[in-house]
Amino acid sequence: MSADSSGSQMDKRYAAVWISAADPMAFLDEDGLIDCNDAAIRLLGLADHSHVLGHPLEHFAPAEQPHCVSSRAHISANFNAALAKGESRFECQLRCSDGSLLIADIQLHRISIGGGKIVHAVMRDISERWETERRMRNLNDTMEASLHQLTNFDVVTGLANRQRFNEEASIAIERANTLARPVALASIAINNLSDINNTLGHEAGNQVLSEVANRLRRVVNEADILARLSGHVFGVLLDGCADKFAASVANRLIAAIAPPIAVGTHEISVGTSVGLAMLGRDGRDLWTLMQNADTAMYRAKSLGMGGFQFHSGEMNTLALERLVLESRLRRALDQGEFVLHYQPLVAASSRRIVGVEALVRWQNPELGVVPPDRFIPLAEQCGLIIPIGEWVIAQACRQARAWQDAGLPDIEMCVNLSPRQFYLPNLAGVLAKVLSESGLAPERLVIELTEGALMAHTDDTLRTLGDLRSMGIRLAIDDFGTGYSSLAYLKRFPVNKLKVDQSFVRALHDSDDDVVIARAIVDLGRNLNLEVVAEGIETAAEMDALSSYGCDVMQGFYFSEPKIASEIEAILQSGAIT
Asked: Phi/psi of residue 430, each to 5°?
């Protein structure tokens, strides 16, 4: 076989491979496409080669290319790079004849034919792979954005969280120290958030927090740094704010939060306490300023809702005293420092004792008798109210049974439960155990609950009340008229008694409005077949007035102050209070 015939056959074999190759291929020179195979025609959806020849590769690429692929200018640059360096590779979007788009991976190799330089192009459709990668990139971007949001921002309010606040505020304080620029740090507490969560539920609490955050945003400046620092505490670093302006800002913050917040059918007013610490005077680093602002905030809170306080050295002393008090309170139960006093409840008609209310007292060897209004709020805040409350119930039931075993008249034992105790999931079990161990009949125990504790109207509230009522335990609403009085829940809840709050009793001779309210509460209770108890009676006039309204039972210093068990026993033996 001659060399010419052999070469001809070889050319035919190469041509056959070229034409039948699965990969789209083309030859290009500086003027455009010289030739392409059938796979390239199919890739671009063209009728024949005539639509390809003479066009540069970028002719088939849309002017606007998607992110992460080469632009039209880069396509031309890659062709020149292949001519100069021998090869190049890139990805770009190509438009087919029917208008559809695809992403192609294009490899260019320089070859020499007849002394001229041309480029051999291999094109592969990677649209599916590219789309998968694009989705993965978007997913990663979304996950990174979500992680950034979770790491730096509060999910309820959208404000910066403590971590982001610490980062940004530290930088701002360092800059302010360098420039001798005034800065104030405000610690802002929502005082009654736990009550809202316990009564209306955490979703309602979150709505309140979100609205508070919106109101704070409208007060602070763009340069200020606002954050939610913990469950009920917000913080704001006030840039360029001196003492005289800090007080004004604090007042505006309090005023912004003051209007009632609509949550479902309820309008809720939240109490706000603000503590202020000034850069320089109260510290030069963020940690010290935050500690002092918190101390000032708790001081404002102790003085009553709706106020603000600047930090002072005295507050550090008060904070230390609080820590010491809490430490001693934690040991008090184990060391037997709590005692119960009992205040009689007297029948209006006979003046006989029909019950007593158990009141806890703390007798510390070093502090003496600690007033309840000093240690009960602290016990609520640090969670000790639960074990203290359980001890009170158990001790009260044992005492009531002891009086019964001594042959004294049967009376009711009334015990007030805090909201935290009431919302314990095993409350019915705790009470059942106490009654079983003490031997006290369930009908002799009266559980007193405030309106706030019952406000949620949840299924759990009804279930718990139903469980207690089915056990035979009697239920009373304490301080009626001061909270969220509602005829709806009086009809719905299985309560036995209403206790008229002492604020109405004490104002009977000074306020016609309070007379009307007291009368209405008594009438309401009697019409609903509820026993009505008036508490806080201190004068004969108050007793006579409440008796004339039809009040069933009375309680107050006019009859007896709270007494220890032996003194109550003596009164029970005498028969009645004169």
From this structure: -60, -45
